[in-house]
Amino acid sequence: MSGTVKKDPIDWNAALKEMLSGGITRTILSVILGFAVGAFFMIVSNKEFLQSIGFFFADPLASLRAASDVVGAGYGALIKGSVYNSAAASLEGSIRPLTETLRLAGPLIAAGLGIGLGFRVGLFNIGGTGQLVSGLIWATFVATRLELPPVIHFVVAIIAAIVGSTLVGAFVGFLKARTGANEVITTIMLNYIIVSFFNFLLLDNNLLQGATAGGHTKSDPAFDTARLPGLLGDSFALNLGFALSLIAVVIYWWLMERSTIGFRLRAVGFNASAAKTAGINVEGTYVLALGLSAAFVGIAAANQALSSTGGVTPTTHAGIGFDAITVALLGGSSASGVLLAGLLFGAFKAGSSAIQIEGISPDVLGIVQGAIVLFIAAPPLIRAIFRLPPPQTTSMLSALRSKLFGRGGK
Amino acid sequence: MKLELKGITKKFGALVANDSIDLVVESGEIHSLLGENGAGKSTLMNVLYGLYKADQGQILLDDKPVDFSGPGDAMAAGIGMVHQHFMLIPVFTVAENVALGHEPTNKLGVLDLEAARALVRKISDRFGFDVDPDALVEDLPVGVQQRVEIIKSLARDAKVLVLDEPTAVLTPQETDELMEIMRGLAKSGTSIVFITHKLREVKAVADKITVIRQGRVVGQAKPSAETKELASMMVGRDVGLTVEKKLADPGKVVLKVDNLSVLDDRDQRAVNNVSFDVRAGEILAIAGVQGNGQTELAEAILGLRALHSDTGDISISGTSVRGKSVRTILEKGVGYVPEDRQKNGLISEFSIAENLMLNGSFTKPFSNGLGIAFATRNRLAEERVKEFDVRATSAQTPAGKLSGGNQQKVVLARELSREVELLVVSQPTRGVDVGSVEFIHKRLVDERNSGKAVLLISTELDEVLALADRIAVMYRGQIVGIVDAKTDRAKLGQMMAGVTV
């Protein structure tokens, strides 16, 4: 019954399957789907569309027109607000949205690299917020309480931010290595502790509270010497923070892909037991990995603490510690992936006010953001929607899923 | 019951695991399914058991076509399966395990354990199993646990019994007893499918032999066939089953183990006061049935497992390695082939090249300071893939995509390419195809000839007898005795069961 099968020299079918089962295609499809979900919410919350529904059967085109108008306006505004503003009078005005995207993407990229590094080692660092706030504390102290010469001041402040964050991460790693404490639990708890401690520091003017803060939780503004210098002159807010994030991307790439330390980190991430057998100190690697993870978060902390002209407040962390998780997931924890994902989410942040001007709730962008990562995290869903073949290799995500949700059967 | 498989084809993507396989097992016949790991035996049996759906083909029981959508259907139709890994609940009694899933109840719906006990006793007496229905499964030796599995199947009126590699966990004596049981069952009309890759057992017990290679039936054979002939059918080419080796010329003591005690994961003494030494240029084999402390012994030597405080010492080339880190011990010149290569020997997501530097990332030639020396690494990987005959498209292929034999060659390539004095090799040919077994054995003998001390841990007596210069038999964490390699099989079998000879 089974004859000999003629073999094509190149198995196009297999080649196509492999491409489709790869992460890049799935990621792009997830982004497209995420935007589709966002469009859905824009449409159903649009007044013209809801009115047109009443006489849908009489004039179906009116509904379609209303729907396409609102989606066009919404995503048009997003592009205008985050990439290029064609309506601006000057060149400065038209490229300002892009510089804003870069500015806002900077800390997301840096922190995303940090969380991604954890993922690569099989660790789920949810403590981005706590680590970032710890970095803020240290940087704010240097920036508002120490007087140092120009350049040296902000350099010391950056280092302080990184050290402040790293210590928290390394502490989590130490707890895990010594006592086996799960990093998910300890990082969440440290988030509470550190954020509250920060509030405490900001309420006492002997500590970090500013002289003019009154009863508010606010620090003094950073000394001018401690502020990150602008990259494009005074008319743009884009500053050295973004450059630091780009440098971080390069360091991350080298560390993870080219260095022997990264090799060991990845080995522990994939198979800790084989790594241990190969003489790699697995416990030490956890401490190192969580320390390094937090160090990248520390770059985001420096950016947040040293960019504002006003003082630092409890909201200065801007939720970056959590957004970084989505950035790392979307970027597949690779250097280039995190860079692109950070830019995308930076664009969302930059474009949110423009979208609001169009009368659309900027929360739609939050929905898009969440939906994208939801689709990324649920590859079977994407495969079902687009009828893709099952994956050929196990991904970092599936390893993570099995770690988080126990030994799910195949 | 007569079982017939007709033209069974099962594909997984591009891989054809079963390619129109025909198999007829007559009533009361012991039919051996012989094939290497990955030949498709287990897939075929999973199709039979309703775990997989065949893409093509038919299953007939007593000439009537059947269609199973799950193991429940297969059991109901009279098919019983004893898996390599037992599906028993250790803290339940034998009767409870047998009742599980088919619990007999009285009129009030309350579990009727007495009925289950009676059933166990009935079956046990009928076939001479000698199993106490009230014993806790965890207290029973492995051989008896296996009989409990068989009782489970028989209690569900299995007319066709599939035994998947049943002897892997048994002592030679237990194996003989199992064969007796198989003969008894066959005489009473039960058809038995005996899956194995051990030629000696096939010849001893089978009525008929079907050989499977790469998903196809490559031939039938009678048990009277020559071992060599069966082996070459299995592999598809001539294989040498014996290893040529000259007399050992032992030199200085390399590994000295003095009063070693080790706890297992449950804090039980897995290794108890064990002492031995291994000299340069000799192979000392640790023989014994799986689970008698061999795993823990190897891990303790490598520093992977803490030594019990009673321990005298472990020294390598005269220096104590007590309490030293794994890395230190590896760097002292120890090569290690772990028993479970998937779990401990390799990282399946890593390429062959990356796996070859797994324990070499700290030093030259793989590291140049902080960075990986990519050019050197890839060049060495290409060389080693060639030298160790690893069948892969390139050295950048992920290790997880290789067959068991090729994965093992990667581990060996890594360990044998390092500068070592001592090789600790655990189950080097487990799950490895016969063709690769020959190669691996030859390489180990070469290492010994070049003056390295080799500690071989194996549960396969054939392997021990083929390679060892001296044999230490381990039983319940202790060394029963260290004997000459010429000791006969029966005596070793007794020692493996704990009898001091």
What can you see in these coordinates?
- Chain A: The chain crosses the membrane at residues 20-44, 151-172, 184-203, 236-255, 286-305, 325-348, 360-382.
- The complex is a heterodimer of chains A (410) and B (501).
- Chain A has a domain at 95-352: Orthogonal Bundle (ABC transporter involved in vitamin B12 uptake, BtuC), CATH 1.10.3470.
- Helices cover 70% and strands 0% of the residues of chain A.
- Chain A is built from 17 helices and no strands.
- Chain A has helices spanning 12-21, 23-44, 47-54, 60-82, 91-120, 128-145, 152-179, 183-202, 240-258, 260-270, 272-277, 282-307, 320-330, 335-357, 363-377, 379-386, 396-404.
- Mean pLDDT of chain A is 87; it is low at 1-22, 392-402 and 405-410.
- In chain B, the strands form 5 sheets. A 6-stranded mixed sheet of chain B has the order 6-7-8-3-9-10, with helices on both faces. Chain B has a 6-stranded mixed sheet with strand order 16-19-20-13-21-22, with helices on both faces. A 4-stranded antiparallel sheet of chain B has the order 2-1-4-5, with helices on one face.
- Chain B has 3 domains: 3-235, P-loop containing nucleotide triphosphate hydrolases (Rossmann fold, 3-Layer(aba) Sandwich), CATH 3.40.50.300; 242-333 and 421-429 and 447-501, P-loop containing nucleotide triphosphate hydrolases (Rossmann fold, 3-Layer(aba) Sandwich), CATH 3.40.50; 342-418, no CATH class.
- The model of chain B has no long low-confidence stretch (mean pLDDT 89).
- The longest helix of chain B has 16 residues, at 172-187.
- In chain B, helix 14 runs parallel beside helix 15 (434-449).
- Chain B is an alpha/beta fold.
- Chain B starts with a strand and ends in a 5-residue tail after the last helix.
- In chain B, 33% of the residues lie in helices and 26% in strands.
